[in-house]
Amino acid sequence: MADKRTMTLNLTDDEMTSLEALSNRYDMTKTAVIRKALRMYQVIDERLQRGDKLFLEDEIEKKKSELLLL
Amino acid sequence: MRTLEEDRWIKRKAEEEDGAFVAAGHIGFSPMETVAGSSSDVVAARVSFARFIQLARLTLKLSKEQFAVKARVPLEELVCIEEDDAYTPSLRTVHYLAQFLKVSHPKLLTLAGLARAKDAGFNDAAVKFAAKSEPIRKLTREEQDAFNEFVKVLSDR
Amino acid sequence: MSQESITIGLYDYQKQAVVDALLHVGLSEEQIRAAQSDWEPIRKGAIERLHKEGVPLDSLPKHWGWDWTRKVSRLGSKVFGFYGIECDGKMQGMLEVAKEGYLAKLPSQKGKPLIYVRYIETAPWNLKLLEPIPRFGGVGARLIRSAVELSLEEGCKGRVGLHSLPGDNKGEPEWFYRNTCNMESLEAERDGEGLLYFELTPEKATEFLSGETS
């Protein structure tokens, strides 16, 4: 297992509420949620840097919409 | 370093597993189309089709999205063709790919595993092409040469 | 995925003892190519032999055409993980997992993240179906254990999902996941090829790691 380092994270009330909601919904620790979010962000960022675009698809309507990241 | 507990665990699990066939994932090919027919031909064809489409796209210096638009094929399908071992493309997609790449439609269908090859020479060419092409990010000179050779085979209608 | 190797045990049928093996966490392209080159001719040869001996086509192992080298483009991905168990100088089993994009389907766990086994295979010389006296035992179970341990590390509490190749007789894949790995199947979640979905709950994962079976 890779060595881990500790950091302190300051969140607003809203951000903490969102994090807790995700943690409860997915039955994961808050740390695990943040690690997952970081990984997804890295993956998306790599693809965007390559010139790819990120789309979301409505499976029922068969419509795609581009997720804009600024 | 192993622990006694781990050793006990693996010994117990080895007994339970008892040489079982352990596999999960896509089937891709069924033995029926491989063992009953000419097995290495189907394997070579499937590998060759994915490699050929990928090399064609890279030769044209197109991203997957650009290639999909120009060839008029769904982007998701193109991604599956290039990256998913088990994926069988639709007839429509192979038709449009053959048109766009200006190669023989029946031969590309065979390469995609949607039709049987009519001559052994085609299968040999597919095997050679599969052997020379590797998972790639950009073309090497050898891959470019192999690709050009194979295009000639596919274009010979 | 960065690479590291850990010493584990495998059961050696020749020595009738547990011996040292290496669990590779993360694989290189060379390792995958070497494994494919070792396994493919034996796998194909054995299946063709079975066919000639009269085993019905329907009953033949269906991973005949698997090619692990086609997965090398996913090496180094943050989303996919590769594991291999090496012993006696050869790869005895390999595993590819997805860490993202899959959620549990069993009603009691529905919607919770899990580790999904995309591919798992043990070397053909370890299968009784292809070799009357297997070389090493416990390879499949040890690979599944790696997936469970990754699931715990990722905060998924041991949840693991996969689609099994067909066969629920003793010694066949579905039987293995149900009986050796404590996994539950879900008919409604068969995939496009009709493969049966299996999932390990946190409770069953704990039992599996402790060596208990249901």
Overall mean confidence score, pLDDT of chain B: 78
Helix content of chain B: 55-70%
The description of the largest β-sheet of chain B is:
none
How big is the Rg of chain B? Answer: 20 Å
Strand line-up across the major sheet of chain C: 6-1-2-3-4-5-7-9-8
How many distinct beta strands of chain C? 9
Low confidence ranges of chain C: none
Question: What is the strand content of chain B?
Answer: under 5%
Largest sheet of chain C: 9 strands, mixed
Q: Approximately how much helix is present in the residues of chain C?
A: 25-40%
Order of helices and strands of chain C: EEHEEEEHEHEEH
Distance between the termini of chain C: 33 Å
Q: Classify the secondary structure makeup of chain B into a structural class.
A: mainly alpha
DSSP helix count of chain C? 4
What does this structure look like?
The complex is a heterotrimer of chains A (70), B (157) and C (214). Chain A has 70 residues and is mostly helical. Chain A contains two helices and two strands. Chain A has helices spanning 13-26, 30-49; strands spanning 55-58, 63-66. In chain A, helix 1 (13-26) crosses helix 2. The termini of chain A are far apart. The termini of chain B are far apart. Chain B has nine helices and one strand; from the N terminus they run αβαααααααα. Chain B has helices at 4-17, 31-34, 39-59, 64-71, 75-83, 91-101, 105-111, 120-132, 141-155; one strand at 23-24. Chain B has one domain (4-155). The longest helix of chain B has 21 residues, at 39-59. Chain B has 157 residues and is mainly α. Chain C has a single domain (4-210), classed as Gcn5-related N-acetyltransferase (GNAT) (Aminopeptidase). The longest helix of chain C has 24 residues, at 29-52. At the B-C interface, helix 1, strand 1, helix 2 and helix 3 of B face strand 1, helix 1, strand 5, strand 6 and helix 2 of C. Strand 1 of chain B pairs antiparallel with strand 5 (115-122) of chain C.
